[in-house]
Write a structure and sequence with these properties.
The complex is a heterodimer. Chain A is mostly helical. Chain A contains 21 helices and four strands. Chain A has a domain at 295-504. Chain A has helices at 4-12, 14-33, 39-58, 83-105, 107-111, 116-135, 139-157, 164-195, 200-207, 214-231, 240-247, 250-275, 294-313, 319-339, 343-374, 385-388, 390-404, 410-424, 428-454, 468-486, 489-496, and strands at residues 63-67, 77-81, 277-280, 286-288. In chain A, β3 and β4 form a beta hairpin. Classes of the chains: A mainly alpha, B mainly alpha.
Chain lengths: 504, 166
Amino acid sequence: MEFHSILNSLTYLAPEITVSAALILVVLFDLILGKNKKALPVIALAGMVAASFFVFQQMTFNGFAFSKVSQPWINVGMITVDSFGAFFKSIVILATVLVIFFSFSSEEIKKSFDRLGEYYTLVLGMVLGMFLMISASDLLLVYLSLELVSLSSYVLAGFTKLRERSSEAALKYIIYGAVSSGLMLFGISILFGMTGSTNLYVINSLLQAPNINHLALAFAGILIFAGIGYKISAAPFHFWTPDVYEGAPITITAFLSVASKAAGFALLIRFVKITFISGVAPSGHWQMIPAFPWKEFLIVISILTMTLGNFSALWQTNLKRLLAYSSIAHAGYILMGIAVLSNQGLIAVLIYFGIYAFMNLGAFFIVMLIANKIGSEELEDYKGLGYTMPFLGVTFGMFLVSLIGLPPSAGFIGKLYLFIALVDAKMIVVAVIALLNTVVSLYYYIKVLREMFLAKPASPSTAFKLSPLSLILIIVMLAPVVIFGVYFNPIVEFAKGCVTILGL
Amino acid sequence: MNIYDIVFYLFAAITLVSAFFVVTTRNIVYSAFNLLFTFFGVAGLYVLLGADFVAVVQIMVYVGGILILILFGVMLTNKITNVQIKTGTLQVIPAVIGVLLLAGVLIFKVFLGTEWKSVKTDIPVKTTAFALGKLLITDYVLIFELLGILLLVVLIGAATIARREK
């Protein structure tokens, strides 16, 4: 028996091992320290910083890990390490670090102080699951990591137990999650039955055969998409999103809307690109196996997702629900970038995601700070906030402008690259529909600004002092949103360097 | 039709009929008892497939663990037997058409029309537990370790939910 391959694989798994170690340390220190829980977030943060060091190493690092010991002639493994994965892992790390800092100032989390150990354990469990989702190239690992992420997030969504909405959110989340992971397993079983392998690369080479039943393959593809689509809240698997986002603690809502989506998108791109590709044209376009029309399928889903998201957002009066629908719409825009099925589309998706992470986390953070102060997320209570809390009002406005995608914010650059990719691929109609959607989204984002700046304050102004930590966090998230709007070369170059998906 | 076919159809019938009753009975205790036969039938199918270990685990975990847990849950919650479970049906005709269409496509186009990958083996005489164990610490060692962490996280999550909030 050769165990060298397993030992060698461990070096590729350094970020995941670091996160697991941090998880176990949090559990242990929670037991040892008892009532004093100040050290727990520090351990979690230290774990993330260490993991980010290993992830940056992986930026220039390609390879497979955990190939089969019993079948050494198959040189592909369960884990694929490449710069594409490293990009999404760094987004996850960024979101996690920011969310841990959010949790310092969140009133909701402070109230459940004695369960802080569980909170950080579950967050780290989610991070581990997301890391593995991002680099998984084996259906078994895909399913298991998806479950790890889902199971941790069910509990986190219902973490504040004293509020009824929170429990409702957790229950809805678990029911939708169970159904879609069941559908996904069914799809996986069909794919396995057709090819006899769970490795995506092996499946790809077997699917090149001419005598494949296209209908069965399409069936499997749609079912597996159901599982991933639920994670990225693509229509028609998005029904849980508004309820869960509204009921969950805001820190977790922010985390779900960025990190969990990043992992879902990474998995979707990797799954589509590895399993169904037959070659890459010199122009960067992916040539797909003709068995399943991924392009048309993704275009339909993306148009459906962004239109449903934007139009439902129009009637929302709760800020968390509004941002939930807006995040559904953004998932639609990103799906559109994937539907181009080319390296250029992939670059656009990476740029968009890099910017989306900052602006969405920023918007949620300010909603949280305001909720800490006034105890509400209803739009009605935002009347005149631009005068009572000028700093928060103005920064919130900037994040919203970026979410709309108006120049000179970074959101504009993200949308610009998506549209360029679409036009280059001669998908003009889709680009026009997306543009119209952006116009619709203008209405509900501006509605928030109107309430804040053009309505009279309902209550007399109360003094609001921003803690230094919150101020620093806002600046950290605002700076990229402003700077990348005018000086976007670094993020574009960074994204261009991260398109290597190991494979064809 | 040889003996294997007869046994297969027997187990399949047990599974299907009892599953039907699980869904349709209004009393949760009857549902739970019918679930026992469903799990048992599935375990039988596993045995026919030569997956003896999975079959034993199926009986141990599902029948021995989960089902007993459900029954205890029912017995300890005194009001639950009186709760009317909503098993009404809405939109019967569209549902029947939809299900029949989907089932037709699934059966005739997907399952009969696909060349499934199959491996010819004799019914194994020795148990599969040894080979499974070996695979779990070689080819699937990552999956095995990840399952450990998954169970830890789930355990902590369950404790968090179950804990009484002050």
